Amino acid sequence: MKKFLIISVLAVSILLPSQLLAWGMTGHRVVAQIADQNIKSGTRKKINRLLNNMPVAYWANWPDFIKSDKTGEYDHTHTWHYVNAPGNLSKEDFVAYIKNIEQDNIYKEIPKLEQIIADNVSSVEQKRVALYFLVHLMGDAHQPMHVGREEDLGGNRISVLWFSDKSNLHSVWDGKLIDYMKYSYTEYANLLNTISKDKKKALEAGTLEDWLYESHCLANEIYSSVNNEDRLSYDYAYKYTDVVELQLQRGGLRLAAVLDQIFR
């Protein structure tokens, strides 16, 4: 089974269109690697046993890869990667809105995944798959366009040029801004992990509702800065690279805190 999954992941990673991958493959691995660099030693030992000593970053994109699965087994998970809300809501209104969404979404699923991993009744395979999703969805929660607006599918319907290539606003934020920096995921994680203990503590603070609202506010700013068919290039990358890097740091450090809580 393990060999089959590894082969499947490698095959799909070659074939799956990059615009379907939230944070892109590099971004999700950066989040996972930062988390791995900040979890407690006891947490790492338990995760290593669960993942058969495979790095957390190796599995960070699995929930995107399985979107190409043709059996239908994971079709119900496709909506887990995001939550939509009207723009420019107050925090109180935003939280009330996402609490009342009937469709499965990232806000509903992250706590469920935490419970599956922590529950002694869960099988090893259930815990393992839940961990794959948790690692991935914690990354998605910090990609602002995954807390976007339903009418444009989180920016997917806002067409832009990225330099001279046709793209859309969602795709720019999923991967193009990260790939612009030309780092491997390990290089980027190592660079972003060079911050003080006090700053790390401040960045990892808050609740899931706080983090999603933070992304909602960033999404509002991103929407206001772009029009359909705009050309985005060096100036856009210069303006938003710091935001992308901060969100990657937040995602990784908060994932580490969540994992330490689960495996305490």
From TrEMBL:
InterPro entries listed in its UniProt record: PLipase_C/P1_nuclease_dom_sf (IPR008947), S1/P1nuclease (IPR003154)
Signal sequence annotation: 1-22
Domain of life of the native organism: Bacteria
A single GO BP: DNA catabolic process
Lineage, opening ranks: Bacteria, Pseudomonadati, Bacteroidota, Bacteroidia, Bacteroidales
Pfam families (alphabetical): S1-P1_nuclease
Protein known as: S1/P1 nuclease
Originating species: Dysgonomonas alginatilytica
UniProt KW Disulfide bond keyword: yes
MF term (GO), any: hydrolase activity, acting on ester bonds
Family annotation (Gene3D superfamilies): P1 Nuclease (1.10.575.10)
UniProt keyword annotations, A-Z: Disulfide bond, Endonuclease, Glycoprotein, Hydrolase, Metal-binding, Nuclease, Signal
